[in-house]
Amino acid sequence: MSTEIKKIKSRVAWASGGIYLMLAIVLVRLYWVSLVQGPELRAKSQERLIERHTIEAKRGDIYSADGMTLATTKPVYKVHFDAVTVDAEIFANEVDELGAKLATINTKYSASGWAAYLREQREKKRRYIPLASKLNFSELQRMRQYPILKRGQNRGGIIVEEDLQRIQMATNIKMRTIGYDLEGASAGLEGYYSEYLKGKPGSRLKQKIAGGDWKPIDDPEAVEPVDGFDVYTTIDTRIQDVAQQSLLTQLKKYKADHGCAVVMEVATGKIVAMANLGRNEDSTYSELRNYAVWEATEPGSTMKLLSTMALLESGKVDTNARVDTENGVIKVYDRKVRDSRRGGYGVISLRRAFEVSSNTGIVKLVNENFEDDPEDFIDFMYSRKFNEKTGVSIKGESAPTIPKPSDKNWSGVTLPWVAYGYSIAFTPLQLLTMYNAVANDGVMVQPQVVDRIMDHGRTVEQFETKVLNPAICSKETNDKLKALLEGVVENGTATNLKNGKMKLAGKTGTCQLNYWVEGSQDYQSSFAGYFPAENPKYSCVVVVSKPVKQLGYYGNIVAGPVFKAIADEVYSQMPQEAKVVDAKLLAINEVPTGSIPRIDQAFQKNYVPSFKGLDAREVLQAVGPHNIKVSMKGTGHVMSQSPAVGTPLNTITEIKLTLR
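RE: above sequence
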């Protein structure tokens, strides 16, 4: 018995020893953790609770040439509430009033619902309760006056955080031209000039609190962000509006899939308008892609400018060279080239073939003169840099496609096909750059969409005109090409665009798309040119893709009217040269007493007549039929007037008369 007791006591002793040993190990570990490792662990814990966060910089604004804001960064605010900070008595007395106010700015809860919610959150000791988001500055200022919150962050528990929201202003230049700059994706001006626009981010400490949220805390080492630079574009919103609206009108009229229009200053290459519209599923139109920069397609007959340039510059033919268009159909190997006019045009000159856009005439001339050496024709294109991108400062420009005789898919029909705009591809902007060069006396300049970069009134960088090719052809050839382009509007396929105010010059283009698909009725209509023809100031290209064939698909009727509408609007904004008025006419009108016949005669000849000696009734009778704005001061008869007699009417808006 005693032996058993000893064994039991021995086991108990061993067990107790083991327990004491384990307890000793735990105590030693606790001592090590709390006293030896404690400071380090507490620091790491604090690091996890407090972190330095990036503060985004305000992105620079984008402006039009006429001072309109195209894109800006708007601050929006989030408001949270630290319920623990607020004194118990203040909270109890004012929480119902605060709930009523919150219900007006955030309808998530009713007035009583907000009050109950805040009480519940205070009971749970919540310190970061969301109250409202996406507030503008005035809404935030009103909220700062709410009960409890009006005491500020330390006593009222209000926590305000600013976010920056990028918005595009009310303008017709939207997503694809202005673009965007997102993580992993960018486009347009926003993407291309991001390094200027984005600024430098700042930083500040934030503390992690219940619920995984981060609360800003005082940080003496906080770094304030630096705003981005502003980008001033070459876009003129007045011209942009007419380009957008006239393009939209034609797209709707012909139920087209998409289209674009670009307007450029001839001498500088500055793009003053760029409209891009595509059809949505609900048949409305919006800017889906930047077709002007991105979409490279076969140009069709607008290519004939380059083909004619190569013919003239090579010295092989002149504009008077004769060509037989036969019956409007010629055969090239196993394929046929057709004119739009059945029966063709007979034997005509190169000039006439260009004006009426004869496919057979241009193809025959190119094929006859370059068939044995097609490299000469293609090398002409490459040597003029027509094969290169324009380098416009908008992301997404596609490269041109100009085939070479050394290509595997080159065949006997490639040269004639290229001659009238097939088997070759350009974007609308690239095509415009070439037409602009002709308007600019052969000087090819780079399209430019940004004029300067500014930083709070200081010019950071000014962009000058960049010459891509100082001479795409000789002056003699260029002068002939300008005459041909003017002839298209005066005597050829675009006579419907004739303008009584000024002469236009350009080339129509009608290209069949997807022609390798049996039964395809897809077409592309285009017009490229410049104005005024005699002294070019602006060039323009219009491309409309896939109009409904039954409604119309030729370039002159689908794309041409957009060009004309733009030209009319731009012309109305251009300063007009004063006309020299015949001295005899001035003498006729400079009489002591005016007469209605003489005033009518002056109005018909577009200059301000003399109203001297007329009374108010006679003045109104004289100007009534002419829709001229006249203001009169005083009574009696006209003694003086402004502007002076002989001033061109198209340079004024009002005639001011003084009566005595």
